[in-house]
Amino acid sequence: MTERGFALDVVRKLQQAGFTALWAGGCVRDELLGLTPDDYDIATDAVPRQLPALFKHRNEIGASFGVVQVIGPRGDHGEWLTVEVATFRSDGIYSDGRRPDTVVFSSPEHDAQRRDFTINGMFFDPIKNELIDYVGGRADLEAKVLRAIGNASERFTEDKLRILRAVRMATRFGLAIDPDTQAAAKQMAAQIRVVSPERIAQELRKLLTHPNRVRGLRLLRELDLVEPILPEMVPTFTLPQGLPAAPTGTLWEHTVRVVEELQGAVSFPLAFATILHDVGKPRTFARTPDRYTFHRHEHVGKQMAEAIADRLRLSTAEKTRIAWLVEKHQYLADAPTMRASKLKPILIHPGIRELLELHRADASASGKSLDHVTFCERILRDTPPEELNPSPAVTGDDLVAIGMKPGREFKRLLDAVRDAQLEGQIRTKDEGLQLVRELRSAPPPAPGTPQE
User: In the prediction, which pLDDT does 452 show?
Assistant: First the structure.
């Protein structure tokens, strides 16, 4: 059974018991657009205490708000099918800017008025194949307009996350934001700060992994949402790019172009790292008569990216990947001339494909050559994995076996042997141990001597 089929069965069962039951919200919108809904929500005049007699398997996830999760059979892919069944309600005051303090069970018409946007405020009776639209959602959907239901400021006051959700909805469905809705969102943008970091991060994940993400990025700027969400990016609005004598716009404009150049399925870490790849430039900016410099901006940017990830409470895996991409976003620029011992370790990194896409997008947005990206892609395509990442010729156990003790010299020798192996200078353990003996007998480098 499909989720849609189960949602239809739940509506049928409620209606046969004498209740009004309708599909509600986003699933109705998606059905009208010919899309497959992520989930199905059902609105009804049945109250939670009346549901146990109809549905044996359920979770009362929000019974005080009239919401019960009904659990069905396993779906076509083995997953448990679920739908949320909610009683028609009117909401009281939202003192926390997220949930109503009280609810009053009501009618479909009143229930529609509490929802966020007209395109999300429609109902559908799948038994009668009838749309019930009290808010003009269908007309707005056909006109490709995102409009708050009723007073936009009141809707945003009820749940501040709706301000950011407006950006995502407009981005996802290619909608123009109604002027009154846009004005209210912009006026209240700073209030997004009261929303929990986790909820903001979840909206950003959905926004930035959508193919139309660049529209979302521009809307964040237009609605003054960048400053309360990513204040580190505000200096990029005015920081110049190019040369003093031939400016090419601002750093923000460059960032938007790089995001626009991303191709294929883009993960959240890649999209977010692309936005942050030059975040360290404002703090490292210096000007000479003929150029702008941003010395070590990639390292400063890595630290800033880690702090941003912590603030948004991203997962450790997301934080690590984003910071790595920011730090390495220039690393491969000289790949064709890099030593194999420096290039191969990064080519075997789990994030190499994302790094190459960031390099490609950055170069494309700047009108630069893609030779370094093509070079790395050719190596990855033509080089056997065991050649890119061979088993170490010499291990720590091998050094202990010849009488060495772990320490600084121990690590130096292992690194030197590994570099020689990646360069193709040695292949066997015997050759590696011979190199160790030669390095141990050689005089140590003078203090301050640059090391390879």
Answer: 45
For 180, other C-beta atoms within 10 Å of its C-beta total 13
Q: What are the residue ranges spanned by the domains of the chain?
A: 3-143, 149-225, 230-388, 396-441
Q: How is residue 14 written in tokens? A: 């409620």
**pLDDT tens for residues 193-240?**
999 999 999 999 999 999 999 999 999 999 999 999 999 999 999 999
pLDDT, tens digit (0-9, with 9 covering 90-100), for 257-281 = 999 999 989 999 999 999 999 999 9
Q: Is it true that 149-225 and 230-388 share their CATH fold?
A: no
**Continuous segment of H or E residues that includes residue 61:** strand 58-62
The domain defined by 149-225 folds into Hydrophobic Seed Protein (1.10.110)
CB-CB contact of 179 with 223 (8 Å): no
Q: Provide the β-strand partners of residue 24.
A: 41, 123
**Distance of alpha carbon 228 from alpha carbon 262, whole angstroms:** 25
Class of domain 3-143: alpha beta
Contact 367, 258 (CB under 8 A): no
Q: In whole angstroms, what is the distance from residue 26 CA to residue 279 CA?
A: 36
CA distance 23 to 41: 6
CATH topology assigned to domain 230-388: Hypothetical protein af1432 (1.10.3210)
Mean pLDDT for all residues in the chain: 92
How does DSSP assign 261-316, residue by residue?
H--SS--HHHHHHHHHTTTTHHHHEEEETTEEEETTHHHHHHHHHHHHHHHTT--H
Q: Which of the residue ranges 78-92, 150-164, 170-184, 204-218 would you say has the lowest mean pLDDT?
A: 78-92
3-state DSSP assignment of residue 240: strand
- Residue tagged 């005049």 (tokens): 45
